[in-house]
Write a structure and sequence with these properties.
Low-confidence stretches: 16-23
Order of helices and strands: HEHEHEHEHEHEHEHEEHHEH
CATH topology of the largest domain: D-Maltodextrin-Binding Protein, domain 2
Number of helices: 11
Distance between the termini: 59 Å
Structural class: alpha/beta
Number of strands: 10
CATH superfamily of the largest domain: Bordetella uptake gene, domain 1
CATH architecture of the largest domain: 3-Layer(aba) Sandwich
Mean pLDDT: 90
Helix content: 40-55%
Radius of gyration: 22 Å
């Protein structure tokens, strides 16, 4: 009887394995939920809708976009981390949710590395240091000089504590030795409106995409981009690193799934998402928004993510920044 039980158990296990493999071969057989851990209309939301149209056709399924905003992307990311690792839940992950927050929040409910499977990088964009069109600051050097000569007299706005916009200002202070006053808002729209209205904001390190229309309209003046090199979207704007060596910050957008998704599913999902990112029409739309198209493999994204976590941990520790 004991021998017979072993044989039955082995057959059952083989059957379960065959079923699992068969399910992976058939994936996807239903719609895929794409979690956006920020509000509707933001960069992460816009990119999700842009890419899933293309990838959905290739995969023979549809994507359902769900916005789960809160805590700098942490609420939506926690939902994804706790979802079934079957390839039917993925999410847009950003520099905030998957690199900054782990050092910023004292109690993060998920581990950005252990709880996630990287899929691909959608793209990266610099922040841009902007002022009102009538501002006395004409160059990055002007802002540096004022922040050093009159510490605490320049207000810089951001879309919230711990965002890449906020930390761009922190890093700027660390490299220049100047001092400015941080004024956090709830969104890019609010901080840009404050700048335009001259209410509590003298300068902003803003994502290039939402700032672009205001720059083109001449309402705000771009002094420098935060990436190591100039942006193809605004090549006339210098990189801050040209006058401040070592200054290099890019806000990025990527795709992650819960840890434990079967490799065949990860491989297929990554392949189709990478094709979507590199599609000429989509790439052109990304570039038009000031985004440098990505297309990293899962392994490349994993390595990049780790380097970003290490980088921002140092900046946050040096700035003594914490969010409860």
């Amino acid at each position: 009887m004991h021998r017979r039980s072993i044989v039955i158990a082995a057959v059952a296990a083989l059957g379960a394995t065959f079923t699992a493999v068969h399910a992976q071969d058939k994936w996807p057989t239903k719609p895929i939920t794409y979690i956006v851990p920020f509000g509707a209309g933001g960069t992460t939301d816009v990119l999700a809708r842009l890419l899933t149209q293309k990838a959905g056709l290739a995969l023979g399924t549809s994507f359902v976009i769900e916005n789960k905003a809160g805590a700098g992307g942490s609420m939506g990311s926690d939902f994804t981390a706790k979802s079934a690792p079957d390839g039917y839940t993925i999410q847009g992950g950003t520099i905030s949710s998957h690199a900054i927050n782990v050092s910023l929040y004292s109690k993060l409910p998920y581990d950005p590395i252990k709880n996630f499977q990287p899929i691909t990088m959608i793209g990266s964009m610099p922040n841009v240091l902007v002022v009102r069109a009538d501002s006395p600051y004409k160059t990055v050097q002007d802002v540096i000089a004022a922040a050093k000569a009159r510490p605490g007299t320049i207000n810089y706005a951001s879309s919230g504590n711990g965002t890449s916009q906020h930390l761009s200002g922190v890093f700027f202070e660390q490299l220049t030795g100047g001092k400015m006053v941080h004024v956090p808002y709830k969104s890019s729209a609010e901080s840009l409106n404050a700048l335009l209205a001259g209410q509590g904001a003298d300068v902003i390190f803003e994502n290039l995409a939402p700032a672009m229309s205001h720059i083109k309209a001449g309402k705000i003046r771009a002094l420098g981009v935060t990436s190591a090199k100039r942006s193809a979207a605004v090549p006339e704007v210098p990189a801050i690193g040209e006058v401040l060596p070592g200054f290099d910050i890019s806000s990025w957008q990527a795709i992650f799934a819960p840890a434990g998704v079967p490799k065949p599913v990860v491989d297929r999902l990554a392949a189709e998402m990478i094709k979507a990112v590199k599609d000429p029409e989509i790439s052109a739309k990304l570039v038009a928004q000031g985004i440098d198209p990505g297309g990293m493999t899962p392994a490349e994204l994993a390595a990049f993510q780790k380097s970003e976590i290490d980088k921002w941990a140092k900046v946050i520790k040096a700035g003594n920044i914490k969010v409860e």
